[in-house]
Amino acid sequence: MTRVAGVLFKQNSVFTLHFIQHDRRGLLDRYFLSLVSQGAGGWSPQVTDSQPWLQLDLRDRMEVTAVATQGRYGSSDWVSGYLLLFSDTGQAWKQYRQEDGVGRFVGNVNADSVIHHKLSHPIRSRFLRFVPLDWNPSGWVGLRVEVYGCAYKSDVADFDGRSSLLYRFNQKSMSTVKDVISLRFKSHQAEGVLLHGEGQRGDYITLELHRGRLALYLNLDDTRLRFSSGRVAVTLGSLLDDQHWHSVLIERFNKQVNLTMDTHTQHFRTKGEGDSLEVDYELSFGGIPLPGKPGTFLRKNFHGCIENLYYNGINIIDLAKRRKPQIYSGNVTFSCSEPQLVSTTFLSSSSSFLSLPATQSASEGFAVRFQFRTWNPDGLLLSTQLALEPQRLELQISNSRLLTQKTHPAVSTGHRVNDGLWHSVSLSSQGLQVTTTLDNEPSSTIELGDHMEAGNSLYFGGCPSLNILGCKNPTLAFQGCMRLISINSQPMDLNRVQQGRLGNYRELQFDTCGIHDRCLPNFCEHGGQCSQSWNTFYCDCSGTGYTGATCHNSIYEASCEAYRLTGGSSGFFSVDPDGSGPLGPTQVYCNMTEYKVWTVVTHNSTDPVRVQGSTLQKPYVMKFNYSASPEQLMALVAGSEQCRQEVMYGCRKSRLFNTRDGTPLSWWVDQGGERRTYWGGFLPGVQQCSCSLEENCMDMNYFCNCDADTDSWANDTGVLSYKEHLPVSEIVIGDTNRTGSEALYRIGPLRCYGDKSVWNAASFYQESSYLHFPTLQAELSADISFYFKTSIPSGVFLENLGLKHFIRLELSSPSVVTFSFDVGNGPVVLAVKSHVPLNDRQWHYLRAERSVKEASLHVDQLPLRFLEAPSDRHLRLRLNSQLFVGGTAARQSGFLGCIRTLTINSVTFNLEERAKMTPGVSVGCPGHCSSSSSLCHNRGRCIEKNSGYVCDCSQSAYGGPSCKEEVSVSFDRESSVTYTFQEPFSVMQNRSSKTSSDYRESSRARENIAFSFMTTQSPAMLLTVNTFSQQYIAVILARNGSLQIWYSIHVDRKPDVFSPSPSSLADRRLHRIRIHLPYLLFTGVDAVDEEVMRAGSKGFIGCLSSVQFNHMAPLKAVLLNRGSSLVTVRGHLVESNCGTLADLTILGSTKDDCYFSPTGVVSAVVFITLCVVAVMARFLYQHREAQRDASIKEKEHRHNLETAYRRETAYQAESAYRTELHLHHSSTLRDNREYYI
């Protein structure tokens, strides 16, 4: 062990420090620094020091690879958390951040143990500073440290903004197919050229700083871009003008380029036609010495230091230092100058401020200058009290722009200033004007009513909480960095402020700018735009097709089957086959039949194509471009149960195979680019066609009809169904060059059905059983979703462990689901509590998501629970064990029940495959229909299948796979439909034979009638229900178009009429009618009313849709069973889609909901007839028309009086016999009115 002289240090209390060098078996030196006090061992600051730190001077730049800490010996003093800062000068400091961007180091839990931290990337610096954040609450700050590393040597060149280095080639030009360029730099400015070279043929390479980011322009032999202004740069990094070292590595092989800046790498391919970079004469470093050179573009020269500059293994700075002839060094020095640009960080957006005295001005007025940088769109920069109280002058950032105001008048200045760049601002008064200047932009002024004199103090960044002299933060205090503050041309020494000798402050960090780019790396997925404030980042997902805090979740379903489960019907849909994966959405057609859901993907050539004149040497080739990318197609096919594609191939004297040796003359290419020679669904690898499989080839000596080579047309059409080869990407035809030879082909769209993931399930019936899968890859984001059903009170759904990290989902109690994980910041637990038990043997949906931004948990339709991730903490979830599903590694708290559709990061896990080989777990889980009551709609019945379900719509007025598609018919004046029910009503017995309890029970039963209509005609008959004994209900449109419902109640009453709305419904809009009627008994009524007969005589012109009477669908029965004896059709009927079109095109208006429940309607008889637009009592109406005029007024008057009297009598006699009308108005997005009666 060799002891080196004592180290220079700074601290808050005096202790002796020793610097010791170790040499172990010829390895690199390992340095560590041990602290031993003169009394108790270690360092401890004064109790009065509010911001203690310990600073180490390593005497020269060292490469530090690890640090270790320990508490103060023999005491209860230790540091439990700290920051590590580094600097080359001991003044401009930068905070060291670990791999996740975490700046906080975990310290000690006692005074004796040693906590080591290996740095993820080494520090190359001379000075280190330890800043305690937390310490033992029962003691005080106590610290012993060790620093590990080795010596660091470098060749340095200093550029002053006008200098450069030129490396001249030995020949006129240098052409390379491989380049490796590396360097390290630290810059004082946000702009500057680091490297430039170009060739006369159009090649160029330029590496520069632009707005604090690294930009690389690289082009290979593309003269189109040489003189254009459309050069595209690959950018990396940000905030690179921070006066600290950054490393750059450019690796190029042909067109493939890797650009690495510090720890971030970007891979890309260059533009241009060539593979080599041809540069003429020279490469320049630090600037472009001849800005007028053709093909170049003007940029500022670099101002800062470059070290260890290597071009293809050549040390450029070393050649310059040794004055080699191939190097020209213009005004370059070989030591790095360090400008004294010391920054101060304002840490809090609510309480930070810096108070400085207003120094005496040599002239009237005053002047303030400073530089600032921030991410926040709002914050107070400067506030001062004016001589004329209570007026104040304020300079603030408002909505990302600079704002100067004196009490009320305000002037906005310049561009957006919350871009993280340094901005210079000056505020000065001259006479009766206050002038504000931002950067190099034109100044703006405020007029004063009197000469201005600043108060005694100027407040920078915010105001004290005591509201001194009226200083108050307008919105937020400034959160960012400031430097170069001068008041009346006198620079402010912030070291004196820190020492308490000048001004006052709160929540500041001196000698460093703590700005951090939270959009680097960009955690916004799928092209989301990242923006940020000082403490966090945000993702704008607009136009990406994704949503969530990091644009992780697709807004589209993964398959047509998934759309069916949400109630969709046939049509075009955007599907995202890999969900949150890298593939985007694509549009497909979903054909939802009664039993299967087909996904249809089209291509660019679906029409028949005739081919002539092709040979095997010059074949006809057609490549098919599908509406989805090849990657999306592969995902669609892989997730489907079965796929098929029809190939129609007709031929005349055109063979598919050579009849002599079997050589293929035509073929198609599969999705993987492989040549395929089987046609029409036959087994892969067999050169045959469908006719050979079906044994019906026209000539059984051949395996394909076309190989018979006849002069007449032959057909080898078939269906390709081996889905691993689909879709067809290309077809090649090579035998149509002979006389009379031609071929005709058509490749149909790709059609797939089924979603293998939707019903993939496993049943767990032993608590110790589980399924295991490879380790979950979810460092930065994970979304987990599945369905479960169980009867047990608790159990673990899944778990994955790491050394210290974990992720777990479990049913923790009968009504509570918990999602817990730990990424190194301590366990996080989210819980969702249901108001009903979740162990009810019904399917429940669960989705959990964790990202660097937030975590969320969603169960069924319960409110979403989410929790934001803390800033500046660990981000990556590091797991190393297997993923356990249905249990844990300890075989405790296992789940008993069913889990299906387990999807993690949009990858579906094959539970059934693992269940086949796992004891205690079985394949599948019965009970799909119990997963949700909404699988089948409109009275549709869910029927279980082995892997899924189907909807039985036989008792629904609707059709389609989910019983949601409208069944509509268009009527003309002469058309009508009558459906005869051959079953009795529910209440058939005579009322007198019933007991009172039987009667009360039957009275609670209801008749249900529902239908939709669209018309412009009035009056019009819509629907009647009548019995052979003349009881009836009729729904009509009156002469004014209003809806009327006529019904008869008792033998001694006239028919009653109910008008729910006076407005006209003959308006070409879709209206929905629902009528609910109790079963009641009565006998005989008078003849049908005049108004009803008038409507019946006019018939109906328009569209009726989805007619339902109890469990029967008369209109649907008409279309499906036209030959039935129960159906009578008059006139001409046309099936229509008016109901569907109205749903699609009419999006919103006011909806009036009317609920009507009369006490009595139709007698219970054996035969009941439902007449849809029946031409009712037309002859009777015409017979009475001649006698009507003389007596109609008297009849109407008498009828109205009688009806009113009898209604009142009935109401008083029995509360059950009354009419109830409840009218509710609500705004919806539908453009049609809906009436529920």
TrEMBL record:
Location of the Fibrinogen C-terminal domain: 551-603
Pfam entry (one): Laminin_G_2
Keyword field: Disulfide bond, EGF-like domain, Membrane, Repeat, Signal, Transmembrane, Transmembrane helix
Disulfide bonds: 898-925
Transmembrane in keyword set: yes
Membrane topology, as annotated: Single-pass type I membrane protein
Official protein name in the record: Contactin-associated protein-like 5
Species, as recorded: Oncorhynchus kisutch (Coho salmon)
